[in-house]
Amino acid sequence: MNTLSNSPEVSGLVPVRPAGCTTALYRFYGTDDTLLYVGICDEPMARWSQHASNKPWWSSVHRFRLVWFPTRREAEKAEGQAIVSEKPLHNRAMNGIPNGDRFPVVHLYKFTRELYGDRPFSTRDLVEELGIPKGSAVNKIRELLAQGMFQVVGKKMGRSGRSVFHYRAMPAEGEATR
Questions:
Q1: What's the number of CA atoms in the CB half-sphere (13 Å) around residue 13?
Q2: What whole-number distance in Å separates Cα of residue 128 and Cα of residue 101?
Q3: Which of 62, 63, 143, 168 has its CA 20 to 30 A from that of 174?
């Protein structure tokens, strides 16, 4: 199911929060309809003010598109999918643009919980589905294993004859398993 299909979309001059919604997914477009940036927030005007004060691309924003979601988790999932599939010009995480640590451990953990739940995944899955460079994925997996946030759940022989480990993102404290 398309995550956006059942979510209220708002456009115009001032973002209005529909009843029952908590978090907005926004897209900024340039004058030629180039997708400049995708993000989420609870208070669009406050967040956009931050962008205006510190993002060099802000002056290129011509219009926005705003979709509201009932929960932050749903908005985060839609944001990740949008960045990976739509390749906004100025998003760095998941978009292949170098800028320090593009894949903080906390984001990788959140994305794997959202995408896979309790299902196993491999390094290759992260590389192919999230667009994370292999070296970054390997390093972040090691870090998450050391923190007890990932668990090795098996290994298989890969096409190259090497072992391919499969992992699971451990549920956060108080989170139900899926």
A1: 0
A2: 19
A3: 143
> How crowded is residue 56: how many other Cβ atoms within 10 Å of its Cβ?
7
Encoded amino acid at 148, one letter: G
Per-residue pLDDT tens over the stretch 37-82: 999 999 998 899 888 887 878 888 999 999 999 999 999 999 989 9
Q: What is the pTM of this model?
A: 0.50
2-50 pLDDT, tens digit per residue, is: 344 445 555 555 677 889 999 999 999 988 888 999 999 999 988 998 8
| Farthest-apart Cα atoms in the chain, separation | 57
Q: Are 167 and 153 in contact (CB under 8 A)?
A: yes
Inter-residue long-range contacts of 88-94, CB under 8 Å, 24+ positions, other chains counted = 88/27, 88/28, 88/35, 88/36, 88/37, 88/38, 89/34, 89/35, 89/36, 89/37, 89/57, 90/36, 90/37, 90/55, 90/57, 91/37, 91/38, 91/39, 94/130, 94/131, 94/132
Beta bridge partners of 12: none
| Bridge partners for 27 per DSSP | 38, 65
